[in-house]
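Below is a filled-in request sheet from our internal design queue. Each sheet records the structural input a requester submitted and the sequence that came back. We keep these sheets so that new team members can see what a complete request looks like end to end.

REQUESTER: design group, bay 2
PRIORITY: normal
MODE: inverse folding
CHAIN LENGTH: 177
BACKBONE (tokenized):
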């Protein structure tokens, strides 16, 4: 396993989101981009992976942004890394088993470190614009479950055709009558 810059940025972004979520705020992508010094488009790629993994929620509208989808203690560094890491080929060669064992130990260690542990030792400053706007977050447990769409959409009645819809069709229609 190779911990990339993308993984490190994802962990930093998740800490920023966690700090704001714990205080009842959602944080917007442009704010995270500015705070981390990372391009907006690059963060969009990372956030889409984190959202697909079920680690963050997005909130629309004024005061919207991103918040944690789970409790701080339920999100480990391994979860974040797994969501953002690109799959890599297995190691071949004489030392292959060594690398497999080291990766297993690293995975185990990362699974034991949660956002709660990191946030306890890392002070996160709340974006001052959120406090002045009075924006508040809809907590993760208040989210409604997504509405399931029916497997087959019921067919609608076909609209009644009163006549042709073009000049050419109208000419043919008149000639037929």
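RETURNED SEQUENCE:
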């Amino acid at each position: 396993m190779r911990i990339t810059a993308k993984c490190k940025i994802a962990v930093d972004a998740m800490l920023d989101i966690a700090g704001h979520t714990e205080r009842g705020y959602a944080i917007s992508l442009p704010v995270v981009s500015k705070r981390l010094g990372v391009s907006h488009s690059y963060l969009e790629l990372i956030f889409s992976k984190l959202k697909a993994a079920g680690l963050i929620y997005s909130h629309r509208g004024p005061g919207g942004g991103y918040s944690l989808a789970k409790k701080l203690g339920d999100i480990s560094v391994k979860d974040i890394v797994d969501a953002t890491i690109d799959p890599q080929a297995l190691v071949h060669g004489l030392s292959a088993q060594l690398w497999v064992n080291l990766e297993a130990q690293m995975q185990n260690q990362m699974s034991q470190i949660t956002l709660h542990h990191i946030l306890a030792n890392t002070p996160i400053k709340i974006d001052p614009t959120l406090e002045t706007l009075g924006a508040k977050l809809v907590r993760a447990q208040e989210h409604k479950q997504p509405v399931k769409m029916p497997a087959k959409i019921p067919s609608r009645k076909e609209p009644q055709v009163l006549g042709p819809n073009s000049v050419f069709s109208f000419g043919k229609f008149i000639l037929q009558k």
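SHEET NOTES:
- The helical segments are 5-22, 29-36, 40-52, 77-84, 96-112, 115-120, 128-133, 167-176.
- The chain has eight helices and two strands.
FILED BY: M.R.
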